[in-house]
Design brief:
132 residues, 2 domains, 5-stranded antiparallel sheet, binds zinc ion, 5 strands, alpha+beta
Length: 132
């Protein structure tokens, strides 16, 4: 009988996952579940992976909150608590540039204590004026 300890650790082959496979799985198992297998073989379906779905949902919610806060303005300053109460998740964003955090087309920063400053567009005049 082989023992688990002697088995080299195997990992899910789907790049969006990479979790360690259960050592009790078949020796030729490559994926931790059917969703990972499907996502690997059909990259267009990658966004159906539960991890990606979950994060996309959070990002979408953040995106909508930022857009609503901005309205048709280029720049607004809101109480930090106010947007957190709406369900804004500070841990998730799409990219950063210097001190600025982005969720797709919306940028924001927390340079003023207790406030969030939100602006639109990576190249907007507002963004440039703040980037000193
Ligand atoms: Zn997996």
């Amino acid at each position: 009988m082989e023992t688990d300890a002697l088995q080299p650790k195997r990992y899910c082959l789907y790049v969006g996952c990479g979790k360690a496979l259960d050592p009790k799985m078949r020796k030729d198992a490559k994926f931790c579940n059917e969703q990972c297998k499907a996502a690997h073989h059909n990259p267009r379906r990658a966004d159906t992976h539960p991890d990606i779905k979950k994060i996309n949902k959070i990002l979408l919610k953040n995106f909508l909150i930022l857009g609503k806060a901005l309205g048709n303005k280029e720049y607004v300053k809101k109480k930090r608590e106010q947007i957190i109460k709406q369900g804004f998740n500070l841990d998730y964003y799409t990219h950063t540039h210097k001190d600025f955090i982005f969720c797709y087309r919306y940028g924001y920063h927390f340079k003023d204590e207790g406030y969030i400053s939100i602006f639109i567009g990576f190249d907007s005049a507002v963004y440039k004026s703040m980037d000193s």
